[in-house]
Amino acid sequence: MSMAVSYNSLTPPIIYNFLTIQADFLAVYIYGGNSKQSSSQMTHTWSEYRSVQSFLTLRLIVLDNDFVTLDLTKTWERSSPALTGLPQPSGPPAVAMGALWHSYDSLWLYGGMFSDNPATSPLPVSTWKYDIAGKSWEEFENPQTSAGNFSDGGGQPVQRSAEGAGLSVPEIGRAYYFGGHLDMFTTEGWSYLTARIYLKSFLEFTFPGYANTGVQSLGSDKAAPREGVYRNITEGGLQDSAGFTERADGALVYVPGWGSEGIILGLAGGTNETFVSSSLALPNPRLTLC
């Protein structure tokens, strides 16, 4: 099922951390994330609280799921980047540390973590598509995996991971998400008594209009439908072995030219238990790198 959404207002061009971000050749798109009005702010970082004078009353306006773009065709100073606020959608959730995949004509919002302070209950999982030319969002509810090579049997609900490594490879019509975590701020109905779980899973997404020989229902001559196709390929590599550790805050890098479709490298990352103190001789694992 899909659903179009309307817009509330224009996103203010402010600076964020823990972004959901993606770039093409002409622009960088930034969705959601945390924002702060000062370095000491510890709450409401998923929302921007602004005081607005309205006639005789002073009221607070909450702006969630901010959406901005950075024009790469312009020259700008570091102190005043060419950020432009895009229409703020009234559908896609206010999340941070997800992925904003890109094809040649669309952005795809997957995963992310809801606010932890104040605590916000996660919504059911959906995939959100942004049509760049049409400037519109569309929702695809309850995504499920599809069977294929080195994959699960298909028909499994796609979970919402956060803090993992996202990668877009529009050259072959696919995107990927590796690792991350699940907890009460990513997963609907998760008990606060259950500890966060770090992942070593590997999720593939085939963009609409592309074939994929690794997906049983597509093969080499059938294009993915308009909602795309998910495939859980955790079983396809070393990450399914006992010695491969769970990790978050890492990165994926695509290297073309190796084999018929290139290779993907997984770099850095870790968990709250594998972090090494800077007082030791060993270097810290690289986390939340660019």
Give a count of the beta strands, DSSP E runs of length 2 or more: 23
The side-by-side strand order for the widest beta sheet comes to 1-15-14-13-12
Q: Which value, in Å, is the CA radius of gyration?
A: 20 Å
Biggest β-sheet: count, sense, barrel?
Answer: 5 strands, antiparallel
Name the overall outline. globular
Distance between the termini: 35 Å
Query: What structural category arises from helix and sheet content?
Result: mainly beta
Helix content: under 10%
Structure, described:
The protein has 290 residues and is mainly beta. The strands form eight sheets. The protein has a five-stranded antiparallel beta sheet with strand order 1-15-14-13-12, with no helix packed on it. Strands 4-5-9-10 form a four-stranded antiparallel beta sheet, with no helix packed on it. A hairpin with a 4-residue loop joins strand 14 and strand 15. The protein has strands spanning 2-4, 7-10, 16-17, 20-23, 27-31, 34-35, 48-54, 57-63, 67-71, 83-85, 87-89, 99-102, 106-110, 126-131, 136-141, 165-169, 174-178, 181-182, 197-198, 202-206, 229-232, 251-255, 263-267. The radius of gyration is 20 Å and the shape is globular. Mean pLDDT is 76; it is low at 1-19, 48-63 and 276-283.
